[in-house]
Write the structure tokens for this entry.
Amino acid sequence: MRSLAAAILLAVALLAQQPQTAPVRADEPTRITVNVDRVNMLFTVMDRKGRFVTDLTKNDFEVIENKRPQVIQEFSAETDLPLRLGVLIDTSNSIRDRFKFEQEAASEFLRSVMRSRQDKAMIVSFDTSAELVSDLIENPDKLVAAIHDLRPGGGTALYDAIYFACRDKLSQDQPRTKFRRAIVVLSDGDDNQSRYTRDQALEMAQKADVVIYTISTNISRSDTDGDKVLKYYADKTGGRPYFPFKVEDLAQSFENINNELTHQYIILYRPEPLKTDGLFHPVDLRVKGHKELIVRVRPGYYAPKM
């Protein structure tokens, strides 16, 4: 009996060490809780030359929803809020020849962006399916080791990877307004395996208040359908797409994302009138009297359904 018990314990321990395949059944219910009272808008402001503007105050902004000005209840700069980051790495056959350099660039990014005892990150790989390679942890060395254990091969399930990362991981730490949530996608943008659609994955990211940054691995210098998908996700969540012309430029793309993550603002407001229809509500966030300034923010939010 003792030997049987020992064998069972050993089997359980070995299973616990295996990477988790992301649960991506399309018939599963959504498990995102949306704040009924307040909308959280995370954003950056830049001038026409691409320089971050970091000295703005609450009185510099206006929020318009349904053609009605909204009252800003809270405003702050977000460089001090804990970061919850998902790095989604395409491990399909299409990026095999560039994979080693991508691993190095992603590793250096994690070491530079993560702050000790404050930020957490996870690694999700995706080819034929999405797989959680390393859960949300504070240790960048363990994350880097997980990246270097990846091997390319198979199809591409990009949409499933985004859906899983937002629903099952990045939305969990509460209250939502006390964390910054972001995803960095390293991919060519093609998808031929996902069970979820492009727009289902986007809706999940918007409900989870996740900003998506994308780095294209397409170095053909031609605009592909995959590049359009990557730009779509970034634009619709308040992130930014990057299209490096050669593989060596990947490191600069990661550095640019690092800069964005450290120059953010947040605004919270209670919508008037408050609607609980479960629909998407467009929001216009502007810097008053400064049309030359560019606000990079998601274009709205999903209201809760009561």
Observations:
- Residues 63 and 285 are 5 Å apart (CA to CA).
- The first helix runs from residue 2 to 16.
- The two ends are 53 Å apart (CA to CA).
- The mean pLDDT is 87.
